[in-house]
Amino acid sequence: MKSKEIVISAIHQALDNMNMDVMKKEKIEKLLEVPSQQKMGDYAFPCFQLSKHLQKAPHAIAKDLAGNVNDKYIDHVEAVGPYLNLFFDKQLMGREVIKVILEKQESYANLAIGHGENVTIDLSSPNIAKPFSMGHLRSTVIGNALANIMEKCGFTPIKINHIGDWGTQFGKLMVAYKLWGDEDKVKADPIKQLFMLYTRFHTESEMNPELDEQGRTWFKKLEDGDEEALSLWKWFRDESLTEFERIYQLLGIEFDSYNGEAFYNDKMA
User: Which of 2, 66, 170, 245 could pair with 79 as two cysteines, CB 3.0-4.6 Å apart?
Assistant: First the structure.
């Protein structure tokens, strides 16, 4: 419901009833406030500027207005100093809103302001071979909520899951897998096992810096299209995406694109 318009009209009508029609609706709208605490009302109207027009104390004007505001959606009005605090009839408004929702069903609150224009949203974007973090979860649910709102407003949201699937860390992971990995264990619990291997690599490399050089070498192989490096990278990526997809299904979230860093590797120039 257009609650703000209800309040503006009620105040404007009250001023008219009191033969004090000295303020247009546009001005009332600009002055209208939402109190910081619910106990102070749903809307508050300061009477300072009316005081200039009426040559009367603001608190007196608020008191006069409180006795003249009359609208079926407004339960009661309180004059608190120079402010007029207005409280809605929550049950009546609630019934009205629910009635409209039941009538319109899925089309409730649809807007056409987007005119079908595209809105790209970068959300989720987890890293391959690493656990799905709280940060990624936050990005996923907020991004999806924004996409839902955009769609409701008539835009065409394009949800992009820009996967972190490229970089030197994959060379390091390949070295770790070749040194300590177990194919069956990785297949049984891919994210946990791959992350353990990656963590072990960093622990071991502190004592053996040569491992870092091996990691860079394997990533160079990947960049150059080495068959074994590509095969390992694709396996790590596929296993990770399968696990991520399980989470997305639980959340009921789909994406329009999974193009990650690797997709743009040959497009950087």
Answer: 66
Contacts of 249 by beta carbon, 8 Å cutoff, 6+ apart: none
What ranges in the chain are assigned the alpha helix state H? Answer: 3-17, 25-31, 48-54, 58-66, 90-104, 134-152, 168-180, 183-188, 190-207, 210-223, 227-251
pLDDT in tens, 111-168: 999 999 999 999 999 999 999 999 999 999 999 999 999 999 999 999 999 999 999 9
pTM for the model: 0.70
Q: Which two tokens stand for residue 193?
A: 């096992």
- Please say whether the dihedral angle defined by the alpha carbons of residues 249, 253, 254 and 258, taken in this order, is positive or negative: negative
> Chain centroid to CA 104: how far?
25
CB 214, CB 222: distance < 8 Å: no
DSSP-derived 3-state class of residue 90: helix
The contacts of residue 253 (CB under 8 Å, 6+ apart) are 124, 140, 141, 144, 159
